Fold this sequence. Notes:
Elements: H1 37-47, E1 60-69, E2 88-97, E3 112-120, E4 123-130, H2 143-150, H3 161-170, H4 175-182, E5 196-197, E6 202-205, E7 211-220, H5 229-238, H6 242-252, E8 258-267, H7 268-273, E9 293-302, H8 307-312, E10 325-326, H9 331-348, H10 426-435, H11 438-452, H12 460-474, H13 476-486, H14 490-498
Antiparallel strand pairs: 1-2, 1-9, 2-3, 3-4, 5-7, 6-7, 6-10, 7-8, 8-9
Amino acid sequence: MKKDTNRRLTTASGIPYVENENSMTAGPRGPVLLQDFILHEKMAHFNRERIPERVVHAKGSGAFGTFTVTNDITKYTKAKVFSKIGKETKVFVRFSTVGGEKGSADTERDPRGFAVKFYTEDGNWDLVGNNTPVFFIKDAKKFSDFIHTQKRDPRTNCKSPTMMWDFWSLNPESLHQVMILMSDRGTPYGYRHMHGFGSHTFSMINKENERVWVKFHFKTEQGIKNFTDSEAADMKSRDMDFAQRDLVEAIDSKDFPRWMLKIQVMTEEQAKAFRFNPFDLTKIWPHADFPLIDVGVMELNQIPKNYFADVEQSAFAPAHVVDGISYSPDKMLQGRILSYPDAHRYRLGGNYEQIPVNRCPYMTANYERDGFMAVNGNGEDDPNYYPNSFDDIYADENYKQAPMELDGVIADWYDRNAPGEDDHYTQPGWLFNKAMNDYDRHNLVSNIVGAMSGIDGPKKDLIVHRQLCHFFRADVALGTAIAKGLGVDVEKVMEELRHKPQ
């Protein structure tokens, strides 16, 4: 049978070669010759097969799909992705764990990343969030410190409950997210059965350049489903890649997972008068005050043909917003606007947006040139400077963003937990008393007791008592149950609580 010459064995430069298994040697038992460049090419490429893994969200799963608008929100935004009911936009979604390395288990107790790339005609919009509506901290200056506590002890190179609880006990704003993490929501049943959140406060701008503040919610149509702590541990022993396998098998069998996109909207006037800081990432907006508004449906229906090409090389950045969607004064969001693109340039190179999964499928025009892996023609013979007398690229004034009005314009290092910003306990109390049932509360206490039992060292009692004080302030019954589970004298902790300022 005649063979297709387009499938013959070649080097990366297209040179056909024959000997792919035996090195060229001086005689059958002699040394290998330097001139065997196929050997060099194979080994050199192999040595470079691993790009630096993400510092956070290292292990993930991804799929392509579509987002379809079902409800009209054009009174809030001029973003073309929402321009009319029925409009479809291609998306790529990456799910991930946060703290573990690439080889870690999918069922670890951890938040889950939930990142969506919308390929819109006004450019790629990246909505980069988690499966929780809040986070552990509210200022990006603390992010590296927090992540260090979730990684490995610099001396033992092991995960350290002492490091984690020491940090959380010293940062009471973490309590809301800690309680979500320690509930069964911290061990979701794969990626299909969890909600996703933009988490941050963003803004929407309409055709009249009127701005509203907004939060994004993806509600799973598959229904919420979580592992208990023991079930997660059991699955870890049986299938480290459970969430990846579950997503691939569901889509391959045409059981396409879907999420309903909803938003909460707050006017600028409401934000100024609201009882807490609406840009605080450790707090939710109560649904009773700001009900969910239906927007559309996202469906994932295509697994990438090559995991590395699309999932591993995908790059999302909260900096990537499109006309009609913008930022807010959320301090964590402001920090991520800088840090995410910087991480991608380090990991994938300065031209990471030329990689197909990250490439805008519509027109792009700018003066960025050269750098590693410039593979889009590099501007060919067009000018690489602006302004110039030769090309027809122009700045479209129709896309000029509306200015953001800011209060208190004095530049200073403001205490993130100053009076008025220091209520770290009301919402965790609501979570325990209102959002959880008895089963959830039992599992929460059991999981916290199990996690805190790993605290050791000379500062053990200090860390345990400090963290217990936070639980007591959120809810006395919660603090009491955890203290009893840890074998701690409740009266001693209550005495400490009476002598410490809140």
